[in-house]
Amino acid sequence: MSNSALEFKDMSFGYPYENDLFMELNVAVQPGEFVSIIGASGSGKSTLFKLTVGLEEPTRGSIRLDGEKKANRLGHVGYMPQQDLLLPWRSILDNAALPLEIKGVSKKEAHKRIIPLLDEFGLNGTRDKFPSELSGGMRQRVSFLRTVLSGSPILLLDEPFSALDAITKVSMQEWLLQQWEKQGSTIIFITHDVDEALFLADRVFVLTETPIKELKEVTVPLNRPRRLEDLYSADLLEVKKDLMFELRSTIT
Ligand SMILES: Nc1ncnc2c1ncn2[C@@H]1O[C@H](COP(=O)(O)OP(=O)(O)OP(=O)(O)O)[C@@H](O)[C@H]1O
């Protein structure tokens, strides 16, 4: 059996002078899986990401990527934030080139690698434009391309579509699923939106009580490729109802 892409093993963590937020948590995400994480504000979603990338370290237990405790997890995990963080003075091509340039690849070589990808990522005709000339959805495509170019097999996406309007959001979700199927990466996706969590993921992890000793887990009863109308199937509505009740019970 292959190693888990990401594994928390008996992992405990609390901020200094605070009670533990996670207590002996055991979670494993398999290679190529799409997992959503959902939870109320303050439930620990961002902290879970900070632990995964190594910005925080567990107080007990371990975090493994591909079966190994890595000293520098930041270099092994791609991160896509809610805001696109594109540099306004750089063209789209130069923005996309940034992760390669940081790794020491020359600008010319980076451009050579990226130009064919622009088309693949639905960014045809944008290479010489600047971020301010692109819609929010297009900017997030560039941001995702940049995350993929980090070369990491595991991608952490932190509410990447929460600032988009409802229609753009749905088309970006469909687009993301196509990209994920093509790339074969492992994706962990934080969201506040139950429909989004269910539409995208194989499994949804729900952050409920604190300290978190286990993640409540829901397997999404949908086949792939996903279709928008699947969100209205009877099985899914039942799961959605349970998730909504679960989340509501966490809000005091
Ligand atoms: N640097 C810190 N020092 C101390 N406590 C912190 C720190 N960062 C977060 N916390 C606390 O840890 C808990 C979890 O915070 P976290 O940001 O992980 O939640 P979240 O689920 O991502 O919330 P949101 O959805 O609002 O982003 C909260 O009670 C928060 O106040």
From TrEMBL:
InterPro entries from the UniProt entry: AAA+_ATPase, ABC_transporter-like_ATP-bd, ABC_transporter-like_CS, ABC_transporter_ATP-bind, P-loop_NTPase
Q: Which SUPFAM superfamilies match?
A: P-loop containing nucleoside triphosphate hydrolases (SSF52540)
The answer, when asked if ATP-binding is one of the entry's keywords, is yes
Q: Which Pfam families match?
A: ABC_tran
Domain ABC transporter stretches: 6-234
Superkingdom of origin: Bacteria
User: A Gene Ontology molecular-function term?
Assistant: ATP hydrolysis activity
| Keyword field | ATP-binding, Nucleotide-binding, Transport
The record's annotation in CDD domains points to:
ABC_NrtD_SsuB_transporters
PROSITE patterns from the UniProt entry = ABC_TRANSPORTER_1 (PS00211), ABC_TRANSPORTER_2 (PS50893)
What name goes with this protein? ABC transporter ATP-binding protein
Its lineage reads: Bacteria, Bacillati, Bacillota, Bacilli, Bacillales
